Amino acid sequence: MNQQIYNTMSGKKEIFKPLKEGEVKMYLCGPTVYDFLHIGNFRGAIIFNLIRNWFEEQGRKVTFVYNYTDVDDKIIKRANEEGVECSDITERFIKEFETDFGRLGLKPHDYRPRVTEHIPQIIELIEGIQKNGKAYEVEGEVFYDTQAFEGYGKLSKKKLDELEAGHRVDVDGRKKNPQDFVLWKPSKAGEPSWDSPWGKGRPGWHIECSAMVKSILGETIDIHGGGIDLIFPHHENEIAQSEGCNCTTYANYWVHNEFINFGAEKMSKSLGNVITARNFMETYHPEILKYLFLSAHYRTKMSITDDKLLQTISALNRIYSSLLLASSTVKKVDAPGEMDKAFGSKLKELDTKITEALNDDFNTAEMISFIFEGVRAFNALGFANKGKRNPIHKGCSEAFLSWMKKYGEMSALFNADPEKILNELDEVLISMKDIDRSKVEELITKRAQAREAKDWAQADEIRDELAAMDIELLDGQAKAWRVKVSE
């Protein structure tokens, strides 16, 4: 298996060689649970879901860890604002995250550790760093001594002298070096705290992941992932901590997903254009979010615009319409299915192409394009234009459904009931295009009356008026109309 992965550490694609053949240890930085997550937080969750599933499809056993940061300044601030305990905030938003995660249909992680469950391991790790001469204590606060770690900056390619020059003059004077960071901090009144060799306090942010990784996966893991915003300082500091304590490589491969933009602006809270995953899924649809992210390579910046959303809905409409056709064809033919050899060969050819794409740094953009090629090949068989279905129609439909299910389970896409989701996507289009449903229904009623009166000119006029509203009539079908989507 020639799986290539782009390694942020080396800045190039490398052949993936796991620590133990047939197994993969993988850690992805999870959320700080003080609010609903914005959709950018789910790009990593969605792509790493596919990465894990692809490894398992290849026969590898994956241990996948995704953490919750449940002690943090932001959590404390929100708890104080609401006059509740920090645990009330974290429990609430862990549940909200798991609701959103469940709506996306992603496979649960093997472990979802919480920081507060790993305080003894965090303290032990800090003691190990201190013992190795790479940490120092000042007034109950423990700092990492970045000058004492020779490899500091190797992931982000930052140099200590450049970092020092970039610091402002108001650096904490207790630090040996401006870029030294906190491992343990004394707690203030009313804040969560734990006993430690340095007094009552709580962990710094960076040390938490290092401790959870070591506790669950060991001193060295195969893959560590996260958004590119975590490369520095978070992941750089994780490396310094873990390697400073354990004296061995922390992670062999570093995988980082890019930002997303709304229009031309990067999504950030300071810009005021943050959309939570919850709001996105309620306004649009979970399937749209997954398709958007997987239709672009995880290392490319992507913009979410109305045009991009409409293109995604169009693509999903075509795919699910094909799945609906295949499903109804299977039901309509009682005889055993027969296979069209050319179609079967096409699916095998596409299997090979998808394998090559995913083995090339998990190129989901190409995977989606090849899935679409399979949809086009199925539609080209022309079943939709034939009144009576036969065993070949059934056999090809069964093969197509099975083929789509394989990649659907891998990507968490295409698993919904086709008829149901087509109707749901229609509702999204009605909202996006601001279509007046009552006016549409009124015009359809008038057209039906005109046709009954054999007033074909008026019926055609009304049809044209509806077409101008992007309404496609479905004469003779259970559903009378749908919204047209651009190809």
Task: Write up this protein.
48% of the residues lie in helices and 13% in strands. The chain folds into three domains: 276 residues, HUPs (Rossmann fold); 127 residues, Orthogonal Bundle (Isoleucyl-tRNA Synthetase, Domain 1), CATH 1.10.730.10; 50 residues, no CATH class. Helix 4 crosses helix 6, helix 10 packs across helix 13 and helix 11 runs antiparallel to helix 12. The chain is elongated, with a radius of gyration of 27 Å. It contains 16 helices and 15 strands. It is α/β, with parallel strands linked by helices.
Task: Provide keyphrases for this structure.
single chain, 487 residues, alpha/beta, Rossmann fold, Isoleucyl-tRNA Synthetase, Domain 1, four-stranded parallel beta sheet, four-stranded antiparallel beta sheet, 16 helices, 13% strand
Order of strands in the sheet with most strands: 4-3-9-10
Alpha-carbon Rg, integer:
27 Å
**Total number of beta strands:** 15
- Contiguous low-pLDDT stretches (5 residues minimum) are none
Going by CATH, the homologous superfamily of the largest domain would be: HUPs
Which percent band covers the strand fraction?
Answer: 5-15%
The CATH architecture category of the largest domain equals 3-Layer(aba) Sandwich
Query: CATH class of the largest domain, please?
Result: Alpha Beta
CATH fold category name of the largest domain: Rossmann fold
Distance between the termini: 37 Å
**Averaging pLDDT over every residue, what do you get?**
92
Measured as a percent range, the helix fraction is 40-55%
Give the total of domains.
3
Shape: elongated
What is the number of helical segments per DSSP (H or I, 4+ residues)?
16
User: What structural class is derived from the secondary structure elements?
Assistant: alpha/beta
Give the quaternary arrangement of the chains: single chain
The description of the largest β-sheet is:
4 strands, parallel
